[in-house]
Each structure stands twice: as structure tokens, then as C-alpha cells.
Amino acid sequence: MSDFEHVFEQPPEGAAADWTIPQNWSAYTEVEHQTWNTLYERQMKILPGRACEAFMRGLDALDLNAGGIPDFEIINPKLQALTGWTVVCVPGLVPDEVFFDHLANRRFVSGQFIRKPDQLDYLQEPDIFHDVFGHVPMLTDPDFAAYMEAYGKGGQRAASLGMLPNLARLYWYTVEFGLMQEAGELRIYGAGIVSSATESVFSLEDPSPNRLGFDLERVMKTLYRIDDFQQVYFVIDSIEQLKRETLQDFGPIYDRLQGAEALPIEAVLPTDKVFTHGTQAYAAKGGRFAA
Ligand code: PHE
Ligand code: CO
């Protein structure tokens, strides 16, 4: 997950100039491997039929169920052969330009640590389960792989134009929390959803959130929350649609967005294609902070 914030200005001690650190796979403990397995098995009870085919295929192609935390030396040759992507470790959130530069070069950055056994359900910072289980399977899909590279390049441009908040919303509502139409129903492709047992069910089945058709410019105007289940999910027709729409030059869109007001998170507009007009009951009750 990236909300484009960072803690350090310079690579910390032990990190390379591009901010990467070794995965140091042999240093993971038995408890840490067991945490991966627990999370993996829990998701595998939930995701078949809910996660999109590209995600399920990617899990399989990379053999992420081999047992324990994946060793990047083993998954990277497979991923690279499929789409040219690799996954590298970083010590935490990295500066925007570092993040974009990795994406533009088909390198996905991952946390090295795994959550503690008492934090299985919620954590603030992305760990290796979120980053690898959640993000990496989709990178085996050629269209998604192309989208993510283009996003990295687009990030460099958006930064220079002061449009990063808008581009960050696109990332949030696609890469992290995207839904798609597939096989006559809604399916998950967002990494923030597939790596969460509770949101995997909530995002598709709860009556609370809005589910709206993906509209690039509308998404780039929509506020989002980082601390709870989403109040709105945007639905793409296909990964190919996502790639196609984001291939266009964003210059004219950025011009229009400059003066535009952000849209409230729960807005439903007359122009929206509505899959679900949510009750917003979950958010109204205080979400995960409810008494
Ligand atoms: N097409 C965008 C631009 O012209 C770049 C981009 C591609 C951004 C894909 C996000 C995702 O800036
Ligand atoms: Co993520």
C-alpha cells in the first residue's frame, strides 16, 4: 500500500541508494512463516469465486502456497519470465520519486517484515503479506503489468505538475481497492481487499458501501479513507479497460482537475453507473471504532 507519505529523507542505514534492502529470507523465524501460512489459508477459504481470475492464476503461477514466506530468489525468476516484473524489499514507506522509479522499471517494492500473530486483522503499515500476497499475483497479468509500469511513469509527471493527490486516488481505487466485473458478477482485484479476510467479504457482500462504475476523472476527484473499510468501490469492466483508459494523455484531465473540488467519499452522482447504492450503515455506526 502506498499513501505517498514517507518517514525518511535518505535511505536508512543498510539500504542501497535505490532504498532496497536484502530480503534476508533465511532469517525469518518459524513463527513468521507460520503467520504467512495462517493468513494464506484463511484467504484461500474466502477468495475462490470472489477474487478475479487473473489474481487466482497469478497465485498459482508463482506457487505462493509453497509454504511459508516466499523467497524472492525463487519467485522473481518466475515473475520476471511472465511479465518482466520483480519484487524488491524496502525498509518501509519510501519517497514518492523512489516508489515511482521502481514501478517505472517494473520493480514492485515490498515490506520485508511480517505482522505479529496478534495483528492478523489490522495493521497500519504494509507488511510482506499485503505486498506479496496482495499485489504480486496481479503483476503476472500482462495488461495489469503494463498499467503498473505506466503508473510509475505517470507518477513522475504528476509530481512535477502538483497532481499527486489525484493520481494517488487512482492508485487507491484501482490497485488497492478495485473491483471488476467478471463472469456476470463483481470480483476483487485490489490488493488491499484480497489481503484482508474481513474486507474480502465486506467489499462484495455488505449493503453499506457504494459500488460504482469506474470513471477515470471521477475517481481522481474522490476522497478516500485509509483507516477503515472503504465507503465506495469502483468497478472496472476489465483490466484491458483500465489499461486503455489510463494510456490517454492526462494533460487535459489535469487541467480540468486543477480547479475542481474533491468529491465526498459517499457521493453518488447522476452520472454514476450504480451497481450498489450503499446504505452507509457501517460508516454511520462508526466503522471499526464503533463502541
Ligand atoms: N497516461 C498518464 C499520463 O499521461 C500516465 C498514467 C498511466 C498514469 C497509467 C496512471 C496510470 O500522465
Ligand atoms: Co498496497
Automatic annotation (TrEMBL):
SUPFAM superfamilies, per database record: Aromatic aminoacid monoxygenases, catalytic and oligomerization domains
EC id: 1.14.16.1
GO MF terms held by the record: iron ion binding; phenylalanine 4-monooxygenase activity
Keywords: Iron, Metal-binding, Monooxygenase, Oxidoreductase, Phenylalanine catabolism
Residues where Fe cation binds: 130, 135, 176
The Biopterin-dependent aromatic amino acid hydroxylase family profile domain, residue ranges: 1-291
Major enzyme class: oxidoreductase
Matches recorded under CDD domains: pro_PheOH
UniProt-listed GO biological process terms: L-phenylalanine catabolic process
Gene3D superfamilies from the UniProt entry: Aromatic amino acid hydroxylase (1.10.800.10)
Catalytic reaction(s) noted: (6R)-L-erythro-5,6,7,8-tetrahydrobiopterin + L-phenylalanine + O2 = (4aS,6R)-4a-hydroxy-L-erythro-5,6,7,8-tetrahydrobiopterin + L-tyrosine
Pathway this chain belongs to: Amino-acid degradation; L-phenylalanine degradation; acetoacetate and fumarate from L-phenylalanine: step 1/6
Cofactor dependency: Fe(2+)
Family (UniProt): Belongs to the biopterin-dependent aromatic amino acid hydroxylase family.
Name used for this protein in its record: Phenylalanine-4-hydroxylase
Organism: Brevundimonas vancanneytii
